[in-house]
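step 4 of 6: structure.
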Amino acid sequence: MTAPMPISLQVNGERVDTHVLPRLNLADFLREHLHLTGTHVGCEHGVCGACTVRVNNEIVRACLMLAVQTHGASVQTIEGLSDSGEVADLQAAFRDRNALQCGYCTPGMLMAAQDLLRQQAEPDREQIREHLSGNYCRCTGYQAIVDAVETTARSRREHK
Amino acid sequence: MKASAFAYARATSIGNALELLAAHGDKAKVLSGGQSLMPAMNLRLISPELIVDIGEIGELRGIALKGGVLSIGALTRHADLLKSPEIAAHSPLLTTAVAHVAHPAIRNRGTIGGSLAHADPASELPACMLALGAIIIARGQAGERRIPAKDFFRGIYETALSADELLVAVELPVTRKNASHFFDEFARRQGDYAIAGLAADAVVKDGAFTDLHLAFFAVGDRPVLSNAACRLINVVITPALMADVSAALDEELNPHDDQQATASMRRHLAKVLLVRCVSTLLGRTDLDARAA
């Protein structure tokens, strides 16, 4: 049973049929097998949030999920959200507000921020901080990130 | 780091999971939400030979209310608990506490059964089970055991479960009329494991407790249901009594030092939580030095 196992899943809307070892986590599967390197690997034990992706429409830690557990699931990565334009305004706000410097946390931050904005049209700064509490940033000091998310929420309300 | 190699079996039913556990004993580990197991495996703290994934067993999922008892399936996720109107109505302590469990992405995967079976002494749900007088239901091939929460937690990552048993559900009595609750914890970052925490279930009548269960966590090798707290029931609470109970609480706790806090800091914080809890539940700001 330590041999590769068959899995079938959707990744960013495309069907993937492949074989993976049980020990392979979802983050490494995305990066090394599918070459989707936007999902970053930081701490590998669920603390930093850099590997945040969507599985069946909910954000999860890709380092804390096995690739074999995604059999039958739909996975969306930052590449998917970026290519579809779903987070284009959020990305622009991050750029405008200097909400990134080295960029390591940014894909995970965008995934978590977009998750909040889908659930809550008018989050206050405290709610933004709470929702992003599982994502570490070592450059910005967070203020600019909260600014960018707040700005995006406001402009989405105005352009509805 | 990465987890070392292991074999993986996707259990198709409770019976199938129990067969796998019976065959492999303590060489196997049950994978529920994986939010504690996977970090432990990635850090190579544990290297099981076989992972038994119970994630697809539908009958382990869900919340049901029947005859004054809330039954929560082991695979019910923290995110499900947080959103559940049944939990909010009948076990509001749990709703409050779950908001402190990790972060949204982890709450989307982590399960109540996984959290209880993992038994991290700094985690929130084991303490809630003690405060609420929960029954933990374990199933093995020989049948079912109903284990009171106070007998379930045995030490750091240690429980009354044997290697061939599966935690299938927990049962909680629905909250009583006039009951109130308190939950608070100190953590370095919102959602991190607590440095010290308190889950409390109480009944207050005419400004006094007629019932009080205080479960402290992260201040010992398992959550601690305070006996000293019983001295606060059916009495007029004075600052002198609070000081006595606080001293008695100190005797009950056995916190450890780590990079987050010293044992003495944890003792101090537990006493701070005691005062905040009593003054909040009774509306007695005079008992809390911050308000004085």
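step 5 of 6: annotate
 - Residues 210 and 234 of chain B are 5 Å apart (CA to CA).
 - Chain B has a mean pLDDT of 96.
step 6 of 6: archive
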